[in-house]
């Protein structure tokens, strides 16, 4: 994955081989609660996953000398992988017992954990399913506009599972967070990391990807081709910064 317009060699969101790939790789685990009787709405799950990533990044334990800071640095130093798994019942209760943060949406619950080695999953998470997470929206989501708050625009031409889309929304939120100045980060944190995830209008997608806003390019590990643009992160502060001068 890459953040335009930074050169790929300077970005942890990259698709080509890099010497850092020879070192131990880290991944950010996210677990979505998926009870049979009350599955979350798809859009709410995507938005909750994106907010969960931001909550972890903004947590004092992930910064400075915090207990999660070294793991976060190791993760950000390589490819910023995120893996979404699902849990219900006793599985969810065991997942909640591990160190992490549970973020709740309107219908969704997502727990995010400090990064772990790609080959070092805790047994409570390793046994959870990673594929087949399919969710629907009972009603079409309301329109969203970046003037009213951050919007993560999904590529209208890609068909992604809910789990894949949750990870991509998390990437988009992270790129927006990295691109923001500290005052804007503080304001976003104070607003509870409010955001919307919407599928872009096909006619608007080319403009969005060329706008100078952060763009997620997938590394192609699962589901979609390497280098595919999956998300454009449109925060009001970034929208203003990306607007060409007149």
UniProtKB/TrEMBL annotation:
Broad enzyme group: hydrolase
GO MF terms held by the record: hydrolase activity
Domain of life, source organism: Bacteria
Its EC number(s): 3.1.1.29
InterPro entries referenced in this protein's UniProt entry, alphabetically: Pep_tRNA_hydro_II_dom_sf, PTH2
Span list, region Disordered: 1-22
Keywords: Hydrolase
Reaction catalyzed: an N-acyl-L-alpha-aminoacyl-tRNA + H2O = an N-acyl-L-amino acid + a tRNA + H(+)
Keyword Hydrolase: yes
Keyword Transport in record: no
Pfam families associated with the record: PTH2
Bias kind Basic and acidic residues: ranges: 13-22
Name of the protein this chain belongs to: peptidyl-tRNA hydrolase
Organism the protein comes from: Streptomyces tricolor
């Amino acid at each position: 994955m890459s953040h335009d317009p930074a050169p790929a060699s300077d970005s942890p969101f990259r698709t080509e081989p890099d010497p850092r790939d020879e070192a131990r790789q880290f991944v950010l685990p996210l677990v979505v609660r998926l009870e049979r009787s009350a599955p979350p709405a798809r859009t709410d799950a995507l938005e909750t996953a994106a907010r969960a990533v931001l909550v972890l990044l903004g947590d004092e334990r992930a910064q400075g000398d915090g207990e999660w800071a070294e793991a976060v640095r190791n993760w950000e130093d390589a490819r910023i992988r995120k893996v979404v798994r699902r849990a219900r019942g006793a599985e969810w209760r065991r997942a909640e017992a591990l160190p992490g943060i549970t973020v709740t949406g309107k219908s969704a619950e997502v727990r995010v954990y400090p990064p772990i080695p790609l080959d070092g999953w805790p047994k409570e998470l390793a046994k959870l399913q990673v594929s087949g997470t399919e969710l629907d929206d009972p009603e079409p989501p309301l329109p969203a506009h970046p003037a009213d708050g951050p919007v993560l625009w999904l590529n209208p031409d890609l068909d992604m599972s809910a789990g894949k889309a949750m990870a991509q929304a998390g990437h988009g939120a992270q790129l927006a967070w990295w691109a923001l100045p500290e005052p804007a980060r503080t304001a976003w944190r104070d607003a509870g990391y409010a955001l919307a995830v919407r599928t872009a209008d096909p006619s608007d997608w080319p403009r969005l990807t060329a706008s100078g806003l952060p763009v997620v390019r997938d590394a192609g590990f699962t589901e979609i081709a390497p280098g595919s643009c999956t998300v454009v992160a449109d925060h009001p502060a970034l929208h203003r910064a990306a607007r060409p001068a007149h």
